[in-house]
Structures
1.
Amino acid sequence: MKYEFNTERKYDIIAIGRACIDLNAVEYNRPMEETMTFSKYVGGSPANIAIGGSKLGLKAGFIGKLSDDQHGRFIEQYIRGVGIDTSNMVIDQEGHKTGLTFTEIKSPEECSILMYREDVADLYIKPSEVHEDYIKQSKILLVSGTALSKSPSREAVLKAVNLAKKNDVKVIFELDYRPYTWESAEATSVYYSLVAKQADVVIGTRDEFDVMENSAEGKNENTVNHLFKHSPELIVIKHGVDGSYAYTKSGQTFRGQAYLTKVLKTFGAGDSYASAFLYALISGMEIETALKYGSASAAIVVSKHSSSEAMPTVEEIEQLISGKTGQVTI
Ligand SMILES: Nc1ncnc2c1ncn2[C@@H]1O[C@H](COP(=O)(O)OP(=O)(O)OP(=O)(O)O)[C@@H](O)[C@H]1O
Ligand SMILES: O=C(O)C[C@@H](O)[C@H](O)C(=O)CO
């Protein structure tokens, strides 16, 4: 089964949310306290997804706010350098800083991230900085859940969603739950539910859907039955190394299996998955194939050091899917 998009658009994907910096531990297999060197990459889930999509050949744009300093300029230059349109990336004029994410790689199974997100520039994007003329040029608007965590970014995103719906732009909601900037579980649940009900496609891990439902150990069947009473037509629920499921409003369920790989760290899996899954959907592939693209892209990124820089090419993904690189599905 395929998923249809408006084809007459300049951009395939416009993402809204944070573009930040990842500082990934260069020394592996040790706790952060003993890690002395880090490599710098552009990070932030929606930026990673846009970068991944652009590397696969999608025409991408980005709506966000950057700090007016060396870090903000590094991010803008990198994003522009990979071919993403940065004309709607605003420079903060109020002294807010870039968000930083430090990563800890204790072992392939034990990796975590430590985010510095106090007063970060990305959460200060205002509704007046989101423009209808831009959004209406895209096939899809990719919304990151973290951008809903504080005002004025929350209202800016809600405006973007309204404009997308008005202009027949598909809204893809990536739940992207990062506890660091949310005030309470109740607030997260309220805003996640609000946007998920309006979105066309919702993507998240099982844990993130539990956050949306403000419950524990929810069942996929209950989640999709509830959301399909509203706008969503396609829901993707990820279960880490156990793979992922895509559910359609018409009642079909597809399973995507993870590919066995030599894991260096597990972060970056979700973003690489989303970029390749969306690339495949936008390119007119079947949902089953899109799940393979997402899983293969994630398997490639978890075997590498970064999230953004490691995003694969179409050839790398297709080699893995066709078994030419010797990897197998789990
Ligand atoms: N250890 C692994 N080996 C191979 N593939 C993996 C592994 N972990 C995850 N994946 C793939 O990545 C997909 C997304 O993973 P996961 O459910 O962990 O997303 P996520 O929690 O959003 O990721 P992130 O850690 O980036 O936030 C899975 O459906 C699977 O295909
Ligand atoms: O999403 C973030 O802000 C951090 C990411 O850039 C990081 O690489 C990661 O955790 C991806 O899952």
2.
Amino acid sequence: VDYEVKSTMILFLAQLSGNDSHQNFTLNWKLGSDPCIDQWQGVECDTKNSSIKNLLLDKLSLSGTLDVAMLCNLHPLAASLIYLSLDGNGVHGGIPEEIGSCKQLTQLHLSGNQLSGTLPSSLSKLNNLKSLDISNNKFSGQLHPDLARISTLNMFLAQNNQLSGEIPPFNFSNFDRLDVSFNNFSGVIPDIHGHFTSESFLGNPQLCGDPLPKSCTGSPVPASKDSKERKESPVPAAAAGDNSDEEPKKSSKGPSKEQILMYSGYAAIGALVILLIVWKLCRRKKKEKRIEALNEKVVTQGSAQKASHVSSEYRAGVSRSDFSLTSESGMVSQSLVVLSNSRNTMHELKLEDLLKAPAELIGRGKNGSLYKVVFENGTTVVVKRIIDRSVPGRDFKQRMQILSQVKHPYVLSPLAFYCSKQEKLLVYEYQQNGSLFKLLHGAQKAFDWSSRLGVAATTAEALAFMHQELGQQGISHGNLKSSNILLNKNMEPCISEYGVMGGDDDQQQQHSSSFVSPFTSMSSSDHAAFKADVYGFGVILLELLTGKLVKSEGMELTEWVQSVVREEWTGEVFDRTLISEYASEERMVNLLQVAIRCVNRSPEARPSINQVALIINTIKEEEEKSLIYQV
Ligand SMILES: Nc1ncnc2c1ncn2[C@@H]1O[C@H](COP(=O)(O)OP(=O)(O)OP(=O)(O)O)[C@@H](O)[C@H]1O
């Protein structure tokens, strides 16, 4: 079974279990093993062509979501999967439309979960489906009439949900089992050819007709001859919502009951849409208020201090700062904003102190210059002076405020910032162990495989937190590269300059063209920026694996790796120092596969950073287990 299928299955299970990667271990699903040969629990294969046939994951206390898009969008799986069973778990959320791409499915069993929402219309595309069991969930809405077109269907169990509308005219003569009881179905029961008793339809107060005792014309239905031995309904006609006394109204000239129902349905949808718009507007207002509140919380210092005139030209080794901070009027237009996450000593930080302190230029990147500033008390910070004027000041300030509130141990938050029309400065704690770039490409090259894997896993987790765990406030990095991964005093990676550029336009355009957002909750530019971060992270993985520079002698690392892999010389890609320490080639190849997926030219084909983090964690856990085993 190929790598992509294995990793997709591991991710699918992780989503099902609510991102609990331990479930993979319990079931023995490991990247380093084979689902068919090593018999992953719950997986049954077609022995002829080693393809995955059945996924039987009943009663495993899975409480995550059903991401069938992962399975059904992957051709080899979609072409082989015929039975998916998740009965008796706690899976929540809906069934995604992508289920329609799992064309070979003959059995879909999802009974006894917490699934909700309407059934996707794409279910009707499953024209091999024989049994569909969605009973004992929280599904609502109407069944798509096209469901009745699945000519192979012979079992439909949907009891105990909140489904409504009419029952589609299935070909009941093919059916062995049917149960739609205890829902909110309404209207006339289609012709069941005498195959089922009233039990299959009970508990739907608005349903009428054979085999229920409630007639659709008001009078009780006489038992038809072709009905199989029919039991008396335990629900009295009145309790079943018999509305025979309403019937005469039907013949009057006014709107029919169906029309009234239809119009009130439209009215309800209209009201819902209005409510949704009002809710969205309220949320936006609230968000703005929250940001304003955050702004008030921070310590601002004196708003119109005299600017100490400083030269705008940098001279290496000068003994004082040279940030030009003057506004047109010669005054400092705004003051330094010390953020609430700063250490105590930093609360006292003043703009004049920053200007007075000796500063040393330590870098000049495409987005600005970086200075190391040492205060009298010995505290050392770095100051990033941003030259990009395209980032609007308001956006920049808001982003900095949000970032200062985000507490992730592996994301370096700014200590303070300054923002005027001409100038943007950011103050960070100085990290004396330098950057990942230096560690990989500097003179000293003692950086073993386990540490590299650790850096990859920690960075991916921190990014996943920033992208997804923050929900609507998720922030992309915008300029992810190995020089922005710093090493803290414990040599752990720390992502620096987070969100400073608000998305690198070049990088985004280059790496996220022809993008169409599949999300409604997120703007397409946010989504493109997240995909650009995944690309940047993929390049970092390639640097970790190859030890090579991103660009050298006119050759891009991504292109070089892909060409070597295409030629099937994969082993040639890896850093010689890793080979000589006998690092596991299997796990290096697994990480390489992740990296290659991240740097895919098409942004849509790149995985989410959450998926990447999960796979890297799995590789890391396998590495740790093997180390314990060696000891
Ligand atoms: N807080 C810090 N502590 C120590 N070193 C840092 C810190 N921040 C950045 N550096 C290092 O200083 C060097 C220069 O940083 P700078 O941000 O100017 O360059 P860059 O990241 O290559 O460019 P840019 O971010 O503008 O694209 C880099 O090697 C970086 O790793």
